[in-house]
Amino acid sequence: MSADRLLSLMLLLQTRGRMSARRLAEELGVSVRTVHRDLGRLHAAGIPVYAEHGRAGGYQLLDGYRTRLTGLSASEARVLFLAGLPAPAADLGLAAEVAATRLKLLAALPAVLREEATRADAVFHLDAPGWYREAEEAPYLPLFVDAVFGRREVDVRYRRWREPQEVDRRLRPYGLVLKSGTWYLVAGVEGRTATFRISQVLDATVRDERFERPEGFALGDYWSSYLAEFEARRHTGTATVRFSPRGRERLAANVPPEVVRAYEATATPVGDDGWTEGEIPTESTEHACGELLRLGADVEVMAPPELRRAVSAAVHALARTYDDA
User: In the chain, which stretches have pLDDT less than 70?
Assistant: First the structure.
């Protein structure tokens, strides 16, 4: 909207000082001709903007002029908490609102605080996805943002891990969680609260029906309890293992933190060569075998017998593959 652009133009001059028409046009995503026209409209409205000619010239506001009309819109107010997180904001479809909000907040700050704010922006950066993986595509994420804020029900077709894989669900979106580059939706469904991986949503349609979040529901508390329950469900067994000093050092780079904590809490020396023995939680024989094989000769499985046999079989199969090498 032209009114929003005029406000952004005025705030740019207020926060940045003298700027050329070309630089203003780049910031606002419009033509230089449009900037000249908008500057004329500001001047006609009584805003003390003037031009200085020459190589270092440009447009600026009269010294000492400041406006407190920051004019936050409803959508911009929503993204105050995302003002320092441009990548997640872009995922949510709110990149433009975040940029406008940051500009308006900077305009409202005294010069000293504004300098501190821009300095912090230059030295902090969030990169959510973990190493060796890319962030997942989540094309329906902006739709869920609108549904969460508008408290509207959503019909989805969802791909899950167990059969039947593709299911239809009607959801009441309570909130969104970003974990390690993956977006999750926490929603009410069929009388309970559940978690859905947004990249697994195959289709989604927002309905006209509105809903109320459960009284006392707190997204952070739910997520903490969900993670605790997930870990309890995931680790269904234990294994006794021995690590060399080198293997123990490499453990944290190859298994989840809870496995490292469990081993460190139970590790005891088993000789004079630095090897130690302890217990770790396991998901399944196959999964534990794959994780421990990463550590090669620096780990020995002592129990259970089925895991020891699985590791032995994998090692023998690998040896046979390279017998002719």
Answer: 1-3, 66-90, 94-95, 97-98, 101-102, 105-133, 324-325
Q: In 10 A of CB 282, how many CB atoms?
A: 22
Single pTM value for the model: 0.58
- For residue 304, say if its preceding peptide bond is cis, omega within 30 degrees of 0: yes
SS3 string of the chain?
Answer: CHHHHHHHHHHHHHHHCCECHHHHHHHHCCCHHHHHHHHHHHHHCCCCEEEECCCCCEEEECCCCCCCCCCCCHHHHHHHHHCCCHHHHHHCCCHHHHHHHHHHHHHHCCHHHHHHHHHHHHHCCCCCCCCCCCCCCCCCHHHHHHHHHHCEEEEEEEECCCCCCEEEEEEEEEEEEEECCEEEEEEEECCEEEEEEHHHEEEEEEEEEECCCCCCCCHHHHHHHHHHHHHHHHCCEEEEEEECHHHHHHHHHCCCHHHHHHHHHHCEECCCCCCEEEEEEECCHHHHHHHHHCCHHHEEEEECHHHHHHHHHHHHHHHHHCCCC
Query: Which residue matches tokens 């030295």?
Result: 123
Q: How far apart are CA 164 and CA 96, in angstroms?
A: 40
Backbone φ, ψ for residue 72 (5° rounding): -60, 130
Strand order in the sheet with 152-159: 192-197, 182-189, 166-179, 152-159, 201-210
- The answer for residues whose C-beta is within 8 angstroms of residue 251's C-beta and 6 or more apart is 243, 259, 260, 263, 295
Residue type, 310: A
Question: What local confidence, expressed as pLDDT, does residue 325 receive?
Answer: 57
The per-residue pLDDT for 314 is 94
| Angle of CA points 37, 10, 39, to nearest 5° | 15
